[in-house]
């Protein structure tokens, strides 16, 4: 699922800010859906909790927890009894399932994907049951993800703004389920847009080779970097308006680090794929 806000290079102070939310989602997957599902936990899944915490729209309580992966340094977590952590854990597994289903339809389902499906089968079933019991419209979410795939198959010359529409709506739906507010829903759309943009950048080489749709193929290096920075600025600006005054420095530091890291990675990657662009 979430492929934008992720890093193994976060400075200690930023990692301390985010870890309780990330570890809370991960522990929620383990406790409620099974240990195997933890391999799908990501920083992006924890971001809505982190942003809501900075906005002070919701109060989340930390508690000590042990982790098989961090035995030496036990962590404080938000969850797993927290319902928002459970919900994001379930959505993470749902998205993973839909992504694998999509690969089957596109005949891109390989041996590794089969292992993932088998490995996570029990966790996914539990997650789907949980979402249904909590009145999350699985059919609508499924329709959004499939519509994204169908849109890409039909549209060879679709620009980025139109191409990312259904992914944005899917993220908006998740954010709205956590906190029903128009500004918050829009932040969800912006998050979805950044995820789609980053995936498109990372997939250009593969998509050109396989003759698959990618909205960035008709862009040049400069326009892709400009698109990235404009959307990144818009997300940061809207979040800063949503976040309380005393927490803005923390969010600004978090965004500044991600901006620098992503620009470095993008610059390096775009140099490698420049010959595939116009």
Characterise the protein shown here.
This protein has helices at residues 12-33, 43-55, 83-105, 111-133, 138-154, 160-163, 165-178, 182-210, 221-242, 248-273; strands at residues 62-65, 75-78. With 278 residues, the chain is an all-alpha fold. It has a single domain, classed as Farnesyl Diphosphate Synthase (Orthogonal Bundle). The protein has a two-stranded antiparallel sheet with strand order 1-2. It is globular, with a radius of gyration of 19 Å. The protein starts with 11 loop residues before the first helix and ends in a 5-residue tail after the last helix.
Tell me which oligomeric state these chains represent.
Answer: single chain
Question: Class by helix and strand content?
Answer: mainly alpha
Order of helices and strands: HHEEHHHHHHHH
Count of the separate structural domains? 1
What is the strand arrangement across the widest sheet?
1-2
Gyration radius from CA atoms, angstroms = 19 Å
Largest sheet: 2 strands, antiparallel
Mean pLDDT: 85
The helicity comes to 55-70%
Strand proportion, as a percent range, falls in under 5%
Detail the poorly predicted runs. none
Brief rundown of the structure:
By secondary structure, the chain is mainly alpha-helical. 69% of the residues lie in helices and 3% in strands.
How do the helices and strands line up, and which of them pair or pack?
Layout: H1 12-33, H2 43-55, E1 62-65, E2 75-78, H3 83-105, H4 111-133, H5 138-154, H6 160-163, H7 165-178, H8 182-210, H9 221-242, H10 248-273
Antiparallel strand pairs: 1-2
